[in-house]
Amino acid sequence: MLLIKNAQVLDPYTRLDGRRDILIGDDGVIRAVERELSAEGAAVYDAAGRTVAPGLIDTHVHFRDPGQTQKEDVRTGMRAAAAGGFTTVVCMANTLPTCDNEETLRYVQAQAHAAGDFVNVRQACAITRGLKGQELTDFAALLAAGAPGFTDDGVNLTDASLCLRAMEEAVRQDTLLSFHEEDKSLVFSPGVNAGSAAARQLGLPGAHPSSEEAMVARDIALALRTGARVVFQHISSGRTIDLIRAGKALGARIYCEVTPHHLSLTEDAVLTHGTYARMNPPLRTEADREALIAGLIDGTVDLIATDHAPHTAEEKARPFDKAPSGITGLETAFSVCNTFLVQTGRLSKLALLEKMSKNPAEIYGFAGKAIVPGNRAELAVLDWDCEKVYKTYYSKGINTPYTGMPLTGAPVCTIMGDRVVIPGDEF
Ligand SMILES: [Zn+2]
What we know:
Urease, subunit C, domain 1, 8-stranded mixed sheet, 5-stranded parallel sheet
């Protein structure tokens, strides 16, 4: 048994914001949530001064396993997730080989189990075989094997008729699709905003915001026609937010994801951070960043997801146009969002927990995450007020512009069942 004492429970499901003790049984199930509890023989975790919330859920991570474990593997990805306060992650399918088959899906599930299941690792499967955009995968078989949804993340689904068929199949199978939206013909060069000072300095044409806006507009039309449930991943442009807002008003069953970096940085970060600010879609203007935050506030943006994308230091040391796109995000996400959204008064603590825990759970169908008796304990222990400067990471990837940046607040640990998962200790 585990007894959590003196926790400030903040639960976006029940909207409870109050001092409570939480008793968790040996089976990992919450027994009681009361103002004062004692239990003979229970291990005690004193959470005084800390918030206890439902564990954070990141629906967009790359653990690079199988195939690129020099960048990350399932175990190091899980360590990074737990250190970041996450209890559930959804891995993207652009592994080597592509996760478009049951064998690769089961391999990832087995790796997470072998590592001790201290984070729920849910492996998404590809929409098309080999991410080639030509032939649909076997949705029914992959769902039966445990896929939480389907995505060709990293690659735009260019063929509209194939996209239509994917949506029709998703409706038949009652599953979710998530889309990386960048029309290649409008990405003149990846990783930097077209027309930005950084693009000019690098002598690169950049990625035009229309590459995202045009694809999202097309796919809203297809989603309206088919009734498919579609997540638009890592949205970067303010005009895309306007399109998604309009699509939702028309009744499309669409959801929108943004990253902590698109909410906190602009295209100018490329001038100071170089390849550590190179990602697809790129960082855009301050007006875009403001529009993303407005979308968070009015509910157009449902999810904050990190797009955790580790690469080796050698790869990121290449010239800008030769380096891979993407930055890590799991460990810094809470601190960045707290610093730029909560501490600035743009979002309440409860609203941030909706975007980082409750909405991802509900959209992906991960049930039973409220802090109430009968649910399994999957909790994040959070400090909203400490000063935090990130220097080292549990991820293999160090490719992040937030290293050395003064931030406010940090995750303390997670609780999985009756286990306290302390970074660097209980892994
Ligand atoms: Zn992507």
